[in-house]
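ok trying this again, last paste got cut off
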Amino acid sequence: MRSLQVTSLEGPSSVQVTEVEEPSAGPDQVVVEVKAVGISWPDLLQTRGEYQIKPDLPFQLGVDFAGVVRSAPEGSGHAAGDRVACVLPYGGGADVVALHPESVFALPDNVSFEAGAALPMNYLTAEFALVTRAGLREGETVLVNGAAGGVGTAAIQVAKGLGARVIALTSTEEKAEFARSAGADEAVLVDGFRDAVKELTDGRGVDVLVDVVGGDLMTDSLRSLAPLGRLLVLGFTGGEIPQVKVNRLLLNNVDVRGVGWGAYAMTRQGYMREQWQRLVPMLESGVVDPPIGRTYGLDDVQDALVEMAERRTLGKSVLLL
């Protein structure tokens, strides 16, 4: 079968499509014939050896994927022929994948394989961030920094599904328009965003700020929070890890909260399935509808990763098998 193999830690150029043997499934594993593989930020970091999970070389890339169940153990909740979405720390980028049932989720009939490959990591991360870490309440206002990317658009849609007002924060007008098309109520550009957010919220600020970018916006981000606001740190796609002056936390009674979904969810039996069940009504209603920026063939994986590295990705990039 075809496999996305990382052979060195030199970035996207180190990923090769290689022929390997199909996996030997254990008695407690679901075997999935993969139809689509999502490209995620952890994929890019793993090609550089910069992610917290560092498999031995060579290893099979791929966090998110979707396909059809070939076989499943009794009592797993899955059966041959089921359409599913799946998530792994790595290893999903191949024609056939064997994995534990905890990481396999039933795909509603109205959701395509492309959308299924865009769902698990981004949307489960967004759900964990907004529900478990932020305690988001209906009627609150959420600002999403990096709103045009995969996690950003997921945060927009999950926040809308939870009854929040959503403001997108982007670096260009093109990305702002993309975020609005994904469901954001309003969008502001990075340049002067603090004043723009204050104006949109009548001077109050936002209740929750979802930040996947990092960089040098931390002070203005904290100043954009309403009293008792929560700033959620999801990642650093901008490259720089910002510093927090903690005196700003007490000035307005605000919090900075880390969001490490994988370390929490993947070590708690049943937790990811509970999350998925909370997402299903949003999928069925259409409020969660992953925007696919571009689709590629499996052989074009390097191009998809380079586009992400250069921050040109809109929504989720997906490889079609």
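PB: full thing came through this time. The chain has a mean pLDDT of 95.
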